[in-house]
Amino acid sequence: MPGSLNLPLVVKPRNEGSSAGVRIVRTHETWSQAMIELSEQRTGIIAEEFIEGREFSCGVLFEQALPVAEILPQGHEFYSFEAKYTPGGSRHEIPAHVDEDLGHRMQILALSMHRLLGLRDYSRTDFIVTREGRPYILETNALPGLTPTSILPDECASIGISFDALVDRLVRAALDRGRTLVET
């Protein structure tokens, strides 16, 4: 049983990414089932409060906050592993249809997390925004996906940076760092 924690909860493996193994647990039965299944496959499980709301993401590229994307899972309860990597599993609405203040707050939070964590080049911060308009940071991805279904390339494309140009910028930045290390 989830003890003193109230349901619903989000249950996930401690050492995985891309929402692999993430479950939303709404009943004591599904809690037990999730614990058994996850403990058989993985070591370390995290349980967090489930926050009801809309899903958003905001990338950062070289100290610039990108336009906010709303994540709209298609046929999935949330932005699960399947929704992320199955073509048609989700849509990314960019820019997100939110008021200017909320969009700006998410951009500031994403850039703040990028800096606070000491990240470089690019990152992506995911949010849940409650019905009342309060953004909650779910996580900051230090190495967000660069696949045909990934959000960050879509955010870049929305401001005129093609996938090839994005990859070129990232490779050039890495090569420049390498040259600087060799020269010193």
Summarize the helix and strand pattern as letters. EEHEEEEHEHEEHH
What separation lies between the terminal Cα atoms? 57 Å
User: Which regions have little confidence, pLDDT < 50, spanning 5+ residues?
Assistant: none
The radius of gyration is 18 Å
Largest sheet: 6 strands, antiparallel
Strand content: 25-35%
Overall average residue pLDDT: 89
Basic shape: globular
Helical fraction equals 25-40%
Task: Output the number of helix runs.
Answer: 5
| Number of E-state strands | 9
Backbone structural class? alpha+beta
Report on the structure:
With 184 residues, the protein is of the alpha+beta class. 35% of the residues lie in helices and 26% in strands. The protein has 5 helices and 9 strands; from the N terminus they run E-E-H-E-E-E-E-H-E-H-E-E-H-H. Strands 4, 5, 6, 7, 8 and 9 form a 6-stranded antiparallel sheet that branches. It starts with 8 loop residues before the first strand and ends with a helix. The mean pLDDT is 89.
Q: Tags for this entry?
A:
9 strands; alpha+beta; 5 helices; three-stranded antiparallel beta sheet; single chain; 184 residues
Task: List the SSEs and their pairings.
Layout: E1 9-13, E2 23-25, H1 28-41, E3 45-49, E4 54-61, E5 64-65, E6 69-73, H2 81-85, E7 90-93, H3 100-116, E8 122-129, E9 135-141, H4 151-157, H5 163-183
Antiparallel strand pairs: 1-2, 1-3, 4-5, 4-6, 4-8, 6-7, 8-9
Quick structural gist:
With about 180 residues, the protein is α+β, with helices and mostly antiparallel strands. The protein has 5 helices and 9 strands, in the order E-E-H-E-E-E-E-H-E-H-E-E-H-H. Strands 4, 5, 6, 7, 8 and 9 form a 6-stranded antiparallel β-sheet that branches. It has a 3-stranded antiparallel β-sheet with strand order 2-1-3, with helices on one face.
